[in-house]
Amino acid sequence: MSKIRSDYEKTLWRKIVRFVNGEKDFFDEQSGFDVESEELESRKHNNFFEETEWKKKKVQITELIEERSEETDRRAIKLYEKFYRLFAVITCVAIIAILLATVTNLPDYGDASNPANNEVSKKYIEDGIKDTGAVNIVAGMILDYRAFDTLGESHVLFIAAVCVMILLKIDPDSEKGKRFINLENDRAYEPKNDPILAWATRILVPLIITFGIYIIVNGHLSPGGGFSGGAIIGAGLILYLNAFGFKKTERFFTQKTFSVVSVSALLFYSVSKTYAFFTGANGLHSFISKGTPGDILSSGLILPLNICVGAVVACTMYSFYGMFRKGGL
């Protein structure tokens, strides 16, 4: 038995047989015209047309949904703005009313029965040096008697600086950040190459910072302390920044410097006063000596706590100025 060729269906004899049997039109087949192919192409074209129409409808529906969503968002924002303004007015009025009511109920000025005229102030004045070792009664009060309150104030300064950084820090990947980075000189909004300002800064900044350190270190012996001395040092850093710009200032003060100094100072303050509170509340002996009143190394923890407070205040002042000026340190 002979084997059927693989291309038998395409041979001339097979086409003639199919024509005789009425299966295909020989001449149409010879011309290459295929009715089935035409129908298939027609179906493909119709399917493509239907898919295109469906995509257009889908795009239209999507755009309609987005428009309605944006309109809803706009209405929600307008409603929020109205509520926010109303709530702000009500809050302000309530605070003002509470403050006025409080003022009207305050005792008369100079009255002997006022809460301020009690044994606390007498205790500070009479036993301050003996209890704290500090000649400066104010320093003894805020860093010994009320050290917990001062710790809270220092944390408030640090948290305020962190909040300002969160609100004002510029993202270097944003358009505004790239504009700052592309500046040839970060002192674009300041006088450039001002010899008077530069020479005055070279003379004054060392004196200012030295005076600030003196105010801090001598705070337990004379008027001064960490808050005032830290403010003076912060002013010196700001003057240096105005004269020489961020590029030179960042050689010794960066955001990392701010973080390390502030966190270290607050941690030391917290740990040292926790020890003092624990020993004092339980009547335990403390190894921290008060020293001789009047000596530079006296008053127990007041001197190192003054240094901690001064460091936090100086860093906070400089960071505020840097964030408002450039959006970074």
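That was protein one. Protein two is written in the same sequence-then-structure order:
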Amino acid sequence: MKKNFLTKLGLKSNVRVLNNDAAAEFDDLHIIEAIVFASREPIHIDYLLTKISKSDMSYLCELMDKLRAHYNNRGVNFEYNDNYCIFKTSPMIKAALVDEFEETRDLSKAAKETLAIIAYHQPTTRSEIEEIRGVSSSKGSLDVLLGNNWIEISGKKDVPGRPLVYRTTKKFLLDFNLSDINDLPNLNELRREGLLSGYEDST
């Protein structure tokens, strides 16, 4: 696992970290619970290792297993993979939330292909996506993916016109049960699902 992942990405934590004196009053399980609960984004496991009493991955996994079991049958679930952890609304109460939240519609084929291209070729621009798909991409597909927080704008490409560049997010990995972007299925599997059937990988 890459050391100090958040620092390498230059990301600022949006979590209020307990000071050392206050942290001594809580056990490690409660510290993990509080940090992940307070964050709007998935928390990297390397970050949690710096906040508990023992910087030991096996020990951390034991604590996260306890949290996952504790929240298993509750309104929110604690989920984690090899890199990130997060609290998510339990799928068991989806019906009860229909009136409270707008239900996510199934992705269109265009949006699925756009997401796949960004995942495999990130960072990439809209024109590059259109070139791979062989058709013009509506802004709507990108808006849907941005709205689901599966992709994000990572900057502008250093070419004439300075087009926006897109990449996948940490939430994308968690929602699709991927520990790492390298865990993506190969392109043949996508073609069997009817996606990118006209695309030939040049790599």
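The radius of gyration is 19 Å. Keep this in mind for the problem set.
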